[in-house]
Design brief:
- The chain is an alpha/beta fold.
- It contains 15 helices and 19 strands.
- Helix 3 packs parallel to helix 13 and helix 9 packs antiparallel against helix 10.
- The chain is elongated.
Length: 523
């Protein structure tokens, strides 16, 4: 009989090779399964590398869906929320929404930053897919019984191609964060034209899209809307033109009327009662002036004056001079000086001395001036205001969402001015993630694409199947995204909860926070 020492098996190679082979086989099988589970959505990076953002971020901010509950003692409906939850582990999995049933979400979990938002969804695997436009075959691959297709119509070529591709990038980030294996995002190029939008809508409907996200321009929305309505496919466009909304078409864009109402109501609360407005003579300017007129009527304030200027002009001297009533006030100063000069008493001489450095005399008839423009035109107009004696230290400057850009404080006349815009802290998280993923700064509209894609991903996972119905989309409780709370009104336009910001030399600071739910907004 042969005896074996405790170490004798290490000297026999055959069993060791078998053990190594078994380990390698199990390792390979595990890797294959891992690749099958983690496969799916790929985002094309600016360098052309198909690398999931979740593999490029370190660490990743994990997305969660939350639902708002009404304050204690109320029966207000909840708000489905797309929010950011800090995740410190680089390997953390992205949250996948649980099924929605009338926007009722399980498991209440209080959050300190949003006390009215209470429900978190359990995380799951992220396996949503994007079929790139250039890779999508002429005939789409057969869908499984639970496949949900959402088309996103964007100008991926033409003059707005850069913007369109940035919006697609943002939508793809939302897919990683929210979509499950059932959802397919189908990018379709509108070429930035109405005809291209019509063709894109026909392609999307033919491919079985259950919902259409986009297009970007109002002319494109007008062109493709009839086909979508005829097919019964809801559309959530990125336009801020409320005229395109209704009958199954919803607008995700920032409406100037919301911005005007928010900043003017805040100014009224701060004892500013007389308003004037300076606006371009176009559709946008008319919309702002109409919103200001309705707001002042509603709150009991007064619209003193409204002046329009040619948006294509290079010189805005005439309209600013007229708004300031410069000639009348200048004439009043000259008359006052002349009257004092004719007197020879000491009091008259002292009064005359005080008038030496003045350009005009007499107060303006308004306490606040709304300048409804942005960019270079805003800079040109603002520079003329103090020159014609509209003193920013005496007249509060107000703005619209077009003021929500970096560097606006470089114009001295706008310093201290107020404007309404989404809470910047939430958008800052998106910007950081976008830059980390794509090595480029996102355009201002990118958050719209993220929020609407996230919304589509959530609604696609209902317990009874995808629910893109009008009652769900127009839920009074609304939704919460990177641009704050929003809800679609029955008219199809998006109502938003906005903050009021004050222009500072280097940035802007929040002086009135955005509401956290629509219950507080309506009170």
């Amino acid at each position: 009989m042969t005896s074996f020492s405790p170490y004798s098996r290490l000297l026999h190679p055959a069993p060791l090779f078998w053990a190594l082979g078994l380990c390698l086989a199990l390792s390979a099988l595990g890797a294959c399964q891992s690749r099958q589970q983690d496969g799916g959505l790929q985002v094309e990076s600016p360098r052309g590398m198909a690398t999931p953002p979740s593999h490029r971020r370190s660490p990743v901010a994990r997305r969660v869906i939350k639902q708002a509950t009404a304050p204690a003692g109320t029966s207000a409906p909840a708000t489905a929320t797309l929010q950011n939850s800090a995740q410190t582990s680089p390997t953390a999995r992205l949250a996948s929404p649980a099924p929605l049933s009338s926007l009722a979400l399980p498991e209440a979990v209080p959050t300190p930053d949003l006390p009215s938002l209470a429900h978190l969804l359990n995380p799951g695997p992220q396996t949503g897919t994007v079929i790139a436009e250039e890779q999508r075959p002429m005939v789409p691959p057969p869908a499984t019984t639970d496949t949900v297709r959402a088309a996103i119509l964007l100008p991926l070529s033409g003059g707005n191609a850069h913007l369109g591709r940035a919006l697609l990038n943002a939508a793809q980030l939302a897919m990683f964060d929210f979509a499950d294996h059932r959802l397919e995002l189908l990018p379709v190029d509108t070429k930035g034209t109405p005809q291209g939008a019509q063709e894109a809508a026909a392609t999307a409907i033919g491919d079985g899209a259950r919902i259409i996200l986009g297009p970007l321009l109002s002319t494109s929305v007008h062109a493709m809307a009839p086909a979508a309505r005829a097919a019964g496919v809801p559309v959530i466009a990125f336009s801020s033109d409320r005229s395109v909304a209704g009958a199954g078409v919803y607008t995700m864009g920032f409406l100037p009327a919301d911005q005007v109402r928010r900043v003017v109501s805040y100014a009224f609360q701060k004892s500013l009662f007389r308003f004037a407005v300076l606006a371009p003579d176009n559709t946008y300017g008319a919309t702002v002036v109409d919103a200001l007129r309705r707001t002042t009527d509603d709150i009991g304030a007064e619209l003193v004056n409204a002046e329009f200027y040619d948006p294509s002009a290079q010189d805005f001297t005439g309209v600013v001079r007229a708004l300031a009533k410069y000639d009348e006030r200048r004439e009043a100063l000259l008359k006052q000086r002349k009257a004092l000069e004719e007197k020879d008493d000491n009091l008259s001489k002292i009064a005359l001395k005080r008038l030496e450095n003045l350009q005009t005399i007499g107060d303006l008839p308004f306490d606040a001036l709304l300048v409804a423009d942005g960019g270079k035109r805003l800079q040109s107009v603002a520079a003329l205001l103090p020159f014609y004696d509209i003193d920013p230290s005496k007249v509060r400057m107000l703005g619209t969402g077009q003021w929500d850009v970096q560097g606006i404080g470089a114009e001295p006349a706008l310093l201290g001015g107020w404007y309404a815009a989404p809470q910047p802290s939430m958008r800052a998280n998106f910007v950081a993630t976008y830059i980390e993923t794509y090595n480029a700064s996102p355009p201002r509209l990118a958050t719209l694409a993220y929020d609407v894609a996230a919304l589509a991903a959530v609604l696609a996972q209902g317990a009874g199947g995808p629910d893109f119905s009008a009652p769900t989309l127009t839920a009074p409780s609304g939704f919460d995204g990177f641009d704050g709370i929003f809800r679609f009104l029955p008219s199809g336009v998006a109502e938003r909860g906005l903050a009021v910001l004050q222009v500072q030399p280097r940035s802007a600071r929040v002086i009135s926070a955005a509401p956290r739910n629509f219950e507080s907004l309506t009170n």
